[in-house]
Specification:
Number of helices: 16
Oligomer: single chain
Strand content: 15-25%
Bound molecules: adenosine-5'-triphosphate
Largest sheet: 7 strands, antiparallel
Distance between the termini: 53 Å
């Protein structure tokens, strides 16, 4: 298969808003790629999801900043491209940088202009978007003639869309069914959609729901097999060695095999939650505050897999095995008023909100299906830092005012991110010091006092709302944005998209609330 066919499909997917049309275009391509053998197919599935097959190529933004003249005709094949990146990834030792540069010049010199743009996006990660994964899963299911839920489930269990997609296309239902929950192997976590208030969330789900305390710590998944315990994060990184308290708690539970989902939290002496940064720094260093695990789901217990069991049943097992002091406080109700009252109490206790959950739903990775709905009182967005301004006065010598962008999910968007505003509010001295170093490392170029950076750092912003704006290209600006924390557990493709932002609803244009600099 030629690279041009993948580039063309990718353009069709970006240009339509229709989910059906996106899946159809991807399926058409996957159907053709299937005939090319497993290596080619794996490459196509991976690239359609916006990712290279190599974990590291030693190539970054800088390495593809200056490209040779594009070729007139697209001639590259997928296997040639893959082989070129394999060779790049294998380069090491003295002189490797020069050899890498010449390999890049060779590869990109054989690509036409559209292919060059696309390959550059692939290398820098700009093509990656969380939503692409489920589209590729659905397309693979369509070609294989399998229910989309089966492929999604395999991806959750394998922790990889590429593995699940290729298996569906080459081995069919039988091969797919071999992906089972294995104690000791982490699965992709279930995520939540959001609602403006608790009543809306309860009404949307209908019927009795679990209203769970939303604990502001670090997502953990714990696998126990006898005395073996493994703790992983939302991104499936192993943090077992850093969280001995969690290991000890799980070892004390009355079950031989166990998979639990929960949140690890730093608590002060009064049992109130401490700032997220305190908890987060604990996975980075292994000292500091005491960490307490709180579990809210059970996926396996003593030989019984519970992934497909309704939440009601999973919670029964959880309540039986885990003592109350290690569970997220919860109310089961179908009454929105009772749910609102419970949520108000949760906020008074210092937690960030609630997650309202459908008691009849199974456990499914990702955000689709919306069986979990989070409700937080202030709006928060996960945005990407596009540039930073040098501070003045007390902040001289520090990178301060952040330029914030959302993923631009509009068809034909001119750039991957669209700027929504700036803020320097909420930044402590510690954060200023940290971000100065971080953004200097990400610097691409400087214009006046504005340092442009590679769009890789996600930051969680609280805001009062949106206002319409003629100043910013998305047509809206953030109102009273302030920094809550840096999200090192999220990549830029998991940041909020303009579509998510607009759902907050904009008020008419008002005076600019964030002064242009500090
Ligand atoms: N009781 C709970 N049930 C489910 N998730 C919870 C609970 N308490 C805290 N959480 C956290 O909330 C997250 C669910 O929200 P979401 O899927 O939107 O992830 P997120 O983008 O990391 O959310 P946020 O930034 O709001 O924490 C989970 O990943 C988990 O870390």
């Amino acid at each position: 298969m030629r690279l041009a066919e993948v580039v063309a499909t990718s353009a069709v997917v970006a240009a339509t808003r229709s989910r059906l049309a996106k899946v159809a275009a991807l399926a058409d391509l996957l159907g053709r790629a299937r005939d090319g053998g497993e290596d080619e197919l794996t490459t196509v599935v991976s690239y359609l999801g916006g990712a290279l097959r190599q974990r590291r190529t030693g190539l970054g933004w800088r390495g593809v900043a200056d490209l040779p003249e594009p070729a007139d005709e697209p001639t590259l094949t997928m296997l040639e491209v893959h082989a070129a990146f394999e060779a790049l990834a294998a380069e090491q030792g003295p002189g490797s940088q020069a050899r890498r540069a010449s390999a890049v010049a060779d590869l990109f010199g054989r690509a036409d202009a559209a292919e060059q743009r696309w390959l550059r996006g692939l290398v820098t990660g700009e093509l990656r978007q969380g939503a692409l994964d489920t589209l590729v899963q659905d397309a693979a299911a369509k070609v294989a003639g399998l229910p989309p839920a089966d492929v999604r489930r395999a991806a959750m269990l394998a922790g990889s869309t590429v593995t699940a997609g290729v298996t569906a296309l080459t081995g069919g239902a039988e091969a797919l069914a071999r992906f089972v929950l294995t104690v000791g192997r982490p699965v992709l976590p279930m995520l939540a959609s959001s609602a403006g208030d608790v009543t809306e969330a309860v009404t949307r789900l209908g019927g009795p729901v679990a209203v769970d305390t939303k604990l502001d710590g670090i997502r953990i998944q714990v696998h126990r097999n006898g005395s073996e315990v493994v703790v992983t994060t939302r991104t499936l990184d192993d943090v077992t060695a850093r969280l001995p308290e969690v290991v000890a708690v799980v070892r004390s539970l009355p079950a031989e095999t166990l998979v639990l989902d929960g949140e690890a939290l730093a608590l002060d002496e009064q049992g109130r939650p401490r700032a997220f940064q305190d908890t987060a720094s604990r996975t980075a260093q292994s000292h500091g505050a005491t960490i307490t695990p709180f579990f809210f789901d059970c996926l396996h217990a003593d030989g019984t897999d519970l992934l497909d069991a309704p939440l009601r049943e999973r919670l029964e097992v959880l309540d039986r095995l885990v003592p109350e002091r290690h569970r997220a406080p919860r109310l089961v109700t179908d009454d929105p008023v009772a749910a609102e009252e419970f949520a108000a109490g949760v906020l008074r206790a210092g937690h960030e909100g609630v997650v309202v959950k459908d008691l009849a739903a199974g456990y499914a990775a990702g955000r689709r299906g919306a069986a979990w709905i989070k409700v937080k009182p202030v709006h928060t967005l996960d945005l990407v830092v596009l540039a930073v301004e040098w501070g003045s006065g007390r902040r001289r010598g520090k990178l301060s005012n952040l330029h914030l962008g959302a993923r631009d999910d509009r068809p034909g968007a001119p750039a991957p991110f669209v700027m929504l505003g700036k803020t320097f509010k909420g930044l402590t001295d510690e954060l200023l010091a940290w971000q100065t170093e971080r953004f200097l490392a990400l610097r691409t170029h400087q214009e006046g006092h504005v340092v442009h950076v590679r769009p890789e750092q996600v930051v969680e912003i609280a805001l009062d709302g949106l206002q319409r704006s003629t100043r910013y290209p998305g047509g809206v600006a953030l109102r009273f944005a302030r920094v809550l924390r840096y999200r090192d557990d999220k990549t830029a493709d998991e940041a909020d998209a303009l579509g998510d932002v607009l759902r907050l609803g904009a008020t008419p244009e008002g005076p600019e609330d964030t002064p242009p600099g500090d």
